[in-house]
Design a protein that fits this description.
The protein is α/β, with parallel strands linked by helices. The chain has two domains: about 10-40 and about 265-355, Aspartate Aminotransferase, domain 1 (Alpha-Beta Complex); about 55-260, Aspartate Aminotransferase, domain 2. Helix content is about 40%, strand content about 15%. The chain has helices at about 5-10, 10-15, 40-55, 65-75, 90-100, 115-125, 140-150, 170-180, 190-195, 230-240, 250-260, 265-285, 305-315, 340-355; strands at about 30, 85, 105-110, 125-130, 155-160, 185-190, 210-215, 225-230, 290, 300-305, 320, 320-325, 335. The strands form three sheets. It has a seven-stranded mixed sheet with strand order 2-8-7-6-5-3-4, sandwiched between helices. A hairpin with a 6-residue loop joins β9 (about 290) and β10 (about 300-305). α7 runs parallel beside α8 (about 170-180). The radius of gyration is 21 Å and the shape is globular. The mean pLDDT is about 95.
């Protein structure tokens, strides 16, 4: 019988990691994961039924995602050669680090931002160089670039809008980074559908720019579909290390159907944007809250009382949001995903009851 000290066999860089954990507690109302709280519209479900009936589950998926790329290319007005499909945009972040970084090299990004940039980098033996955001969760390009260049960062990630703060950085400052950074600039536009802002038009002018997008936030979180838009040379390098069949047949076909019948989904997105603005107004009525502007499908707010206690009271009432207090810049900060009007109403009523 083997009885090895397994931890001693694990690489030190992995031992030092903490797993990225999201609360997945069984609550009636889940407003913690930045998903689309609306179920797929009936028109979309009908399209999905046709896909299920026609899919040969005994066959491997298209390794190239050719049909889905054609649909995305038409929608984005780019060539299919500019596209790579990932198992969520997380996989593409990991692939980009494989393509452009050797162990010991540096990846840069603002702070606070999406935790997976740092977690993936550390797991691959890379260093992370952060640059602090200001009190409005924004930055100036010159000091940011100085920080990146001093650390010899190979890639700079900018979440646009930024998660967890919710805002889009100053477009002028982002443009300066794109024009002056000597490495790869990745604009993570996972929440683009709620912001309506993008740097996609800059791609033909800057071959070091990569745009990441996700279908998870608009209603397909279960399918795990993300994509990168970049120079064909970069796409070719991504394909060298991308695992074969990384996107399932159902993920490809269902996504394609949704994109080709987008009108009912757009109605949901419009409703969520309207609800986001209402949520900001209503939360701002609480005198003990500091509510931050949002271009995404969630709202960040800081409370004067113990955020952990408030989080637990909401959870015990059947409402799950996200407590971000573990980050030093986000002490007593909570993040609530925008839900359906009924879910948002229940959240606000419960919050009002707890605060009183």
């Amino acid at each position: 019988m083997s009885n090895l000290d397994l931890i001693q066999l694990v690489k030190e860089k992995v031992q030092l990691l903490k797993a990225y954990r999201v609360e997945n507690i069984d609550c009636e109302i889940k407003l913690h994961a930045n998903e689309n709280s609306f179920p797929p519209p009936p028109e979309i479900l009908k399209q999905f039924e046709e896909v299920f009936k026609s899919t040969e589950l005994n066959r491997y998926p298209d390794p190239d995602c050719g049909s889905l790329k054609q649909t995305l290319a038409k929608r984005l007005d780019v060539a299919p050669e500019n596209l790579a499909i990932g198992n969520g945009s997380d996989e593409l972040i990991q692939i980009l680090l494989q393509v452009f970084c050797d162990p010991g090299e540096t990846v840069g990004f603002p702070d606070p931002t999406f935790a997976m940039y740092s977690i993936i980098a550390q797991g691959m033996g890379l260093k992370s160089q952060t640059h602090p955001l200001d009190d409005q969760w924004d930055f100036k390009a010159e000091p940011f670039l100085e920080t990146m260049e001093a650390s010899q960062a190979r890639i700079a990630f900018l979440s646009y809008p930024n998660n967890p703060t919710g805002n889009c950085f100053s477009a002028r400052e982002v443009q300066k980074v794109i024009e002056n950074f000597s490495g790869i600039v990745v604009l993570d536009e996972a929440y683009h559908d709620f912001a309506g802002k993008s740097f996609l038009s800059e791609l033909p002018k800057h071959n070091n720019l990569i745009i990441l997008r996700s279908l998870s936030k608009i209603g397909l979180a279960a399918l795990r579909v993300g994509y990168a838009v970049a120079d064909p040379i970069i796409i070719d390098q991504i394909d060298k290390v991308r695992l074969p069949y990384n996107s399932s047949t159902l993920s490809q076909k269902l996504t394609e159907r949704l994109l080709n019948h987008f009108a009912p989904v757009q109605k949901q997105l419009d409703a969520l944007i309207k609800e986001r603005d209402r949520m900001i107004r209503e939360l701002s009525k609480f005198k003990s809250f500091k509510v931050f502007p949002s271009d995404a499908n969630f709202v960040l707010f800081r409370v004067k009382q113990d955020s952990d206690a408030l989080f637990k009271q909401l959870m015990e009432s059947g409402i799950l949001i996200r407590d971000l207090s573990s980050h030093p810049r986000l002490k007593n900060c909570l993040r609530v995903t925008i839900g359906t009007p009924g879910e948002n109403k229940a959240f606000l009523e419960k919050m009002s009851h707890i605060i009183k």
